Amino acid sequence: MGGKKISERSIKKKSGPTHPYSRRATQLARVAHRKDKLNQAKSVRSRSSNAKVDRLSTLILMLPDDIDALPDLAAVHAFVKDNFLTRHHDELEELRADRRPGRPPHKREVELKEVIAKELQEYNEGLEIPDFTNATNVKLLREWQGDPQALPLFRMVRISGNDPDQCKLMHTGTHKLLTLELEQQQKSNAETEMDTTDIAADANASEFQRVGEFAQMG
């Protein structure tokens, strides 16, 4: 998910016709799909004033349709950094390019800069997001219609850009499928753990879960 971000403006700067099966055509299709996802998220936001609803709807709409779940914590960080934190960059680039030399930044440009800076700070200090390593949680989020009353149903974790190897489970999720998964895992852990004293000591030693435990949280 890394690499240089491609925008519609940067692609269209290239001269010559676009072959339907060329790399450029693929890039344009990817950019168009991303814009469609962002427009869907805006539509959800227009129907709700709940900041958490806005964030969750944006994140789940940005997750590629062919992915059931992200494999590990490193993939979660890559997804957040390459998609969520950069979602305003194309608009900001266009506003800067359209501004005449010597003119002060447009109000929208200032607002976007502030949003980007605020979200980056929150990500570095600790960002609460859905557990995208849990396939059941991802499925439930994709079926969700944006109802704020349903927020407690989902499994939530807290990640930190300043501590990318660890995360914290914030909410296990009250949906019956997530509850059943948790019960089954707890039963399995109880059958295989030989020394619960050492495990409890490790859990209390840090506020965050170890990276190796992240993929097992669901």
TrEMBL record:
Residue ranges, compositional bias (Basic and acidic residues) = 1-10
Ranges for region Disordered: 1-49
The record, for Pfam families, names: Tma16 (PF11176)
Which Gene Ontology CC terms are recorded? nucleus
**Signal peptide boundaries:** none
Residue ranges annotated as compositionally biased, kind Polar residues, are 40-49
User: By its UniProt entry, which InterPro entries does this protein fall under?
Assistant: Tma16 (IPR021346), Tma16_sf (IPR038356)
Q: Which family does it belong to?
A: Belongs to the TMA16 family.
User: What protein name applies here?
Assistant: Translation machinery-associated protein 16
Organismal lineage: Eukaryota, Fungi, Dikarya, Basidiomycota, Ustilaginomycotina
